[in-house]
Design goal:
With about 300 residues, the chain is mainly beta. It contains 3 helices and 24 strands. The protein has one domain: TolB, C-terminal domain (Neuraminidase, 6 Propeller). Strands 2, 3, 4, 5 and 6 form a 5-stranded antiparallel β-sheet that branches. It is globular and about 45 Å long.
Length: about 300
């Protein structure tokens, strides 16, 4: 797993090294109307998402975008005007029209580096990764998982997810179930941190609590924890350097062997960081198809199509 995770980080840094930070100007932002950021909805094959806005030519995509449960807000991490930092951007749909992207209030251009946002099912809590100091005015710390709570139309002051869950120096894509259990990647593999009595617990390896064949990273957990989508370069049937797989929880609490998501989703290059929209209709993920990194999306019908009929 360490080898696979190291390769992932190297690949990301490789593309980031040649990236040029960019900011959208309000005057240049197109008029986008309707759901899903006003984008052309894919039918069967993956489509590049928000080309020229989130998937930018020559600019590294930091992570997969996430929508709010009502579909009227979208958040994503991107390299800022400072090429050494990342920040979280968002756009909101008002009267059917999407506003020009802005930086979320707590993620400035001079911030320590924030990214990988994920909104909890039901909304109201946004988890993300950050190098922020634990105390105001302090020095930049190591990367930790943080979260902020919605207060009216604004996000409150971010706070660390706690010392028990933040036991490693690096995290990669955090996903949250409806009971606030966290699933995320580290150099040691995919981890789960249960939320008990208002506190995130010490992480457990997914390979121990679910299935020893769940070797990979960048997990997405279903709100009810009935299935897990993740990336791996250490499992059978892989088409490229890193492919997407899915596994299902059985009625008895055990988990199926992971299933490869096939060549309609996976490419000969890297495919990772899957996120399914809160309405369950679409899968978003990072892909290196067509010689450039970007965000693709397609219908998530495969989740039910592949779900075992006999779940005993």
């Amino acid at each position: 797993m360490k080898r696979a995770f190291f390769y992932l980080i190297v690949a990301v840094l490789f593309f980031a090294a040649g990236s040029k930070p960019a900011q959208e100007k309000a005057a240049d932002f197109p008029v986008l109307k309707g759901p899903y950021f006003g984008q052309l909805v894919p039918e069967d094959k993956p489509l590049l998402f928000a080309n020229g806005i989130i998937s930018l030519e020559g600019v590294m995509v930091q992570d997969t975008p996430v929508f709010s449960p009502d579909g009227k807000e979208i958040y994503w991490g991107a390299f800022s005007t400072n090429p050494n930092h990342t920040s979280i951007k968002y756009s909101k749909m008002v009267d059917g029209v999407w506003a020009s992207p802005k930086l979320i209030a707590f993620s400035s251009l001079d911030s320590y580096g924030d990214g990988c946002p994920f909104m909890m099912p039901g909304g109201g809590i946004l988890y993300f990764n950050s190098f922020s100091a634990l105390e105001k005015g302090g020095k930049s710390g190591r990367e930790r998982i943080w979260y902020a709570k919605k207060q009216g139309e604004r996000w409150g002051e971010p706070q660390s997810a706690g010392s028990d869950v933040n036991t490693t120096d690096l995290h990669w894509q955090t996903s949250v179930s409806e009971n606030r259990n966290l699933f995320f990647s580290t150099a040691q593999g995919m981890m789960r941190s249960r939320f008990v009595n208002g506190k995130h617990q010490k992480p457990e390896k997914v390979t121990r609590i679910m299935n020893s064949k769940y070797i990979g990273g960048t997990p997405f957990i279903a709100p009810d924890e009935s299935c897990l989508v993740f990336s791996s370069d250490e499992l059978p049937l892989g088409l490229g350097k890193r492919d997407l797989y899915i596994g299902y929880r059985k009625r008895d609490g055990t988990w199926t062997d992971p299933l490869h998501l096939g060549n309609s989703i996976n490419s000969p290059k890297q495919d990772l960081c899957p996120i399914v929209t809160h309405d369950g209709k679409y899968l978003f993920y990072l892909t290196w198809r067509k010689e450039r990194p970007g965000v693709c999306w397609l219908p998530a019908r495969f989740i039910e199509d592949l779900r075992p009929k006999n779940r005993n």
